[in-house]
């Protein structure tokens, strides 16, 4: 019997579910043994359930093709077959909260890509390099749920990955006001150009709910645990615009920052390139060796050249320069479906395993 933990993918037929399956191929700790989806896919071989809808550039892993898809709503049946699950279900927020809680109460840890539980006070929302200490709130959540090993943990929105790590690296300089405009890839909407041909040569200046997430979620990452819940930070104040652009993968951000303490350019760059977190110190399987790279060229980072930096798990920063209104400005780039979605959730699960929250049943 394999020493690897048995993993289930809830919502395994969607784009993020496919990304989970692709990234978990040959993972040293985790093995996909169960795929669950809607009733219309249940009972089919995974390859047949997907049909022509495989959206990854890499071929579908051979190991999952013959897995018979289970009904995601048959919680006990799915839970019995796995040690923990990744959640990428496509439902209403209320339905997602209910089903993720149901799996947790079935003593099955849930690591979710969804937004439904991001503001549940005792659910940790984690970027492992930024706030691994928030995982300690899980013990309070277990008491609320009445579980011994079941809980829900989530990762934040994909749009903040290209600037929240940067602001974290610069924390000692006390950033207090931030303006960010994100230029977001169509895969963030679960689409390819084949699905969404009207995006070719087009820009849409609205992504529903995205601006509020981009402004508020970093503050929760920087918050503290008090009385068993996570209390968001109050600073910096962030204002965002989020724009959909004709790019397949990669969210770019143009960011302006004011600091209470006045750093030099050299100090800012030094903090970026030396920034390390728990994943790097623990040498977790999916952790980028260099989390943030700084690029000196005026025309970098670029999506086509840099989105796959550190296998899509790193963040690329460039064009750091003084501003006439704010103190400094920069451009950031992150891979929205790897670091920003499935890969970020896998890294969270690796950290949870390393800290004993996820183990064999």
TrEMBL record:
Name under which the protein is recorded: Aspartate-semialdehyde dehydrogenase
EC numbers: 1.2.1.11
InterPro entries named among the record's database cross-references: ASADH-related (IPR051823), Asp_semi-ald_DH_pep-lack (IPR005676), NAD(P)-bd_dom_sf (IPR036291), Semialdehyde_DH_NAD-bd (IPR000534), Semialdhyde_DH_dimer_dom (IPR012280)
Broadest EC class assigned to this enzyme: oxidoreductase
The entry's keywords: NADP, Oxidoreductase
Organism: Brotonthovivens ammoniilytica
Pfam families (UniProt xref): Semialdhyde_dh, Semialdhyde_dhC
Family: Belongs to the aspartate-semialdehyde dehydrogenase family.
Lineage, uppermost ranks: Bacteria, Bacillati, Bacillota, Clostridia, Lachnospirales
GO MF term set: aspartate-semialdehyde dehydrogenase activity
Tagged with keyword Membrane: no
Coiled coil: none
Residue ranges of every copy of the Semialdehyde dehydrogenase NAD-binding domain listed in the record: 6-138
């Amino acid at each position: 019997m394999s020493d690897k933990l048995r993993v289930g993918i809830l919502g395994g037929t969607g784009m993020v579910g496919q990304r989970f399956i692709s990234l978990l191929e040959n993972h040293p700790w985790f093995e996909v043994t169960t795929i669950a989806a809607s009733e219309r896919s249940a009972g089919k071989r995974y390859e047949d359930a997907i049909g022509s809808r495989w959206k990854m550039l890499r071929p579908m892993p051979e190991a999952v093709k013959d897995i018979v898809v289970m009904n995601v709503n048959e919680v006990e049946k799915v839970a019995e077959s796995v040690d923990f699950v990744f959640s990428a279900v496509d439902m209403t927020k209320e339905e997602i909260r209910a089903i993720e809680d149901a799996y947790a109460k079935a003593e099955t840890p849930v690591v979710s890509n969804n937004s439904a539980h991001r503001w549940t006070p005792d659910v940790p929302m984690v970027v492992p390099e930024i706030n691994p200490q928030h995982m300690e709130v899980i013990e309070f959540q277990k008491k609320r749920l009445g579980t011994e090993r079941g809980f829900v943990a989530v990762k934040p929105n994909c749009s903040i990955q290209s600037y929240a790590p940067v602001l974290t690296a610069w924390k000692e300089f006390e950033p207090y006001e931030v303006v960010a405009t994100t230029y977001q890839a169509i895969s963030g909407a679960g689409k390819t150009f084949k699905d969404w041909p009207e995006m070719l040569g087009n820009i849409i200046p609205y992504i529903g709910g995205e601006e509020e997430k981009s402004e508020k979620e970093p503050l929760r990452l920087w918050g503290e645990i008090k009385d068993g819940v996570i209390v968001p930070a109050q600073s910096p104040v962030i204002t965002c615009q989020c724009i959909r652009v004709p790019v397949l993968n990669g969210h770019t951000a143009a960011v302006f920052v004011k600091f209470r303490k006045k750093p030099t350019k050299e100090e800012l760059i030094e903090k970026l390139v030396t920034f390390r977190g728990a994943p790097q110190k623990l040498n977790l399987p999916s952790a980028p060796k260099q989390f943030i790279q700084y690029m000196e060229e005026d025309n970098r980072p670029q999506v086509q050249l840099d989105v796959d930096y550190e296998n899509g798990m790193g963040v690329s920063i460039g064009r750091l320069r003084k501003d006439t209104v704010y103190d400094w400005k920069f451009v950031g780039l992150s891979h929205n479906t790897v670091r920003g979605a499935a890969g970020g959730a896998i890294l969270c699960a690796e950290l949870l395993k390393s800290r004993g929250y996820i183990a064999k049943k």
